[in-house]
Q: What sequence folds into this?
């Protein structure tokens, strides 16, 4: 098997399972090294986002059942627990899946653009870790080209929606006027940046950005004209947050029930809208039990997102047609890899014959033989030896009535 895509996503697994399966940014390189050294795959890349964790494997030594076992053990799943949520796409199906994911056709938000950047990051991480080669390099480069074509040739990116957009839309339903509210955003990655931009376009009163790296938060705050604070300042500033959106790579909750409860008391129980876009979650689930708190996770955005899907379904049909064609082209290249060993053997055999006959000719020349006769003999001997075996096979095919071999020979040698 040349290719395998294996994983779970928002359609096949709950947020609890996705949290367990997620790979932190700092752990992916080690995981890739562990996987490729296991012998189950020579090439590997891992894509891990809030909505999916996927493993892409390449080269002709891919061991499908072994990779499932590895994923189960590495993530701490019982295999029975994993097998009900994981999908496995071998060969051509893996290619189509990669193209669909990068084009936003497999996303919770149909056509969302963030996934392409996340796939590029996943590929770069694997490349830096030295776990990609001919197959995955070609797959990911072709994947990025297809995604670009889909965005250029269809309307899949129009009426742009994303998890960030859907979250801000939901906040607008909670508050009568978002222009009177203050938002506290935790994190400074792409998702938080998108949320901040959507909030600014909605004329929100004030935005506070909190991040572990105050410098990164300050850069974003300066660009958008808002305020930056450190994570340590959150407990004191939490009381100001009418809207709180969190999206970090933390493996542990950043916001607990006690901190939110204290903030509500200081707010005199004015409502708080909290949107946790992180997987693993940044906000303790128990916060949802507090009065005057509207807590949503990425899974809760489904209804908001569904309202926007209809606009893109027609464009998605056009995108699927583009992808189907590109899968055909890519699989032609994959199948050509099967001929590489045969081509190498043919060249090695020809070079062996050439070296042998050339040595004989040089020996004759060194002994004083006529150069013209030596060259003529060399040409005859090379010709006879090159065509000897094919001639034998063709004669036997004629005796056996095997017209396919004869037809293949005519095509192969342009006869």
A:
């Amino acid at each position: 098997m040349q290719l395998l895509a294996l994983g779970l996503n928002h359609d096949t697994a709950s947020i609890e399972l996705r949290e367990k399966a997620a790979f932190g940014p700092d752990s992916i390189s080690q995981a890739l090294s562990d996987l490729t050294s296991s012998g189950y795959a020579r090439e590997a890349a891992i894509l891990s986002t809030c909505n999916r964790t996927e493993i892409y494997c390449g080269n002709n030594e891919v061991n499908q059942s072994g990779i499932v076992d590895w994923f189960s053990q590495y993530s701490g799943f019982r295999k029975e627990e994993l097998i009900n949520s994981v999908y496995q796409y071998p060969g051509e199906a893996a290619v189509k899946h990669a193209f669909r994911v990068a084009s936003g056709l497999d996303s919770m938000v149909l056509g969302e653009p963030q996934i392409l950047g996340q796939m590029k990051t996943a590929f770069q991480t694997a490349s830096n870790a030295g776990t990609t080669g001919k197959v995955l390099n070609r797959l990911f480069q072709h994947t990025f080209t297809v995604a670009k074509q889909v965005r250029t040739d269809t309307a899949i990116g129009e009426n742009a929606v994303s998890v960030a957009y859907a979250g801000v839309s939901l906040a607008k339903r909670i508050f009568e006027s978002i222009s009177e509210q203050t938002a506290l955003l935790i994190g400074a990655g792409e998702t938080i940046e998108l949320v901040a931009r959507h909030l600014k376009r909605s004329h929100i009163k004030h935005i506070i950005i909190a991040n572990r790296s105050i410098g990164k938060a300050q850069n974003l705050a300066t660009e958008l004209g808002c305020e930056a604070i450190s994570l340590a300042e959150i407990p004191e500033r939490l009381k100001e947050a009418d809207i709180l959106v969190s999206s970090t790579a933390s493996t542990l909750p950043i916001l607990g029930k006690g901190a939110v409860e204290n903030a509500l008391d200081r707010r005199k129980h004015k409502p708080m809208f909290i949107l946790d876009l992180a997987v693993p979650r940044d906000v303790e689930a128990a916060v949802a039990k507090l009065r005057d708190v509207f807590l949503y996770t990425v899974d809760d955005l489904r209804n908001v997102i569904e309202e926007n899907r209809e606009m893109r379904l027609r464009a998605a049909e056009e995108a699927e047609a583009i992808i189907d064609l590109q899968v055909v082209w890519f699989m032609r290249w994959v199948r050509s890899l099967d001929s590489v060993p045969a081509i190498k053997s043919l060249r090695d055999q020809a070079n062996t014959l050439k070296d042998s006959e050339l040595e004989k000719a040089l020996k004759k020349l060194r002994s004083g033989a006529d150069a013209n006769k030596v060259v003529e003999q060399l040409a005859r001997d090379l010709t006879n030896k090159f065509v000897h075996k094919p001639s034998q096979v063709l004669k036997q095919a004629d005796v056996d009535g095997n017209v396919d071999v004869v037809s293949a020979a005519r095509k192969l040698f342009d006869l």
The mean pLDDT is 89. DSSP finds 16 helices and ten strands in the chain. The longest strand covers residues 3-9. The CA atoms of residues 30 and 129 lie 8 Å apart.
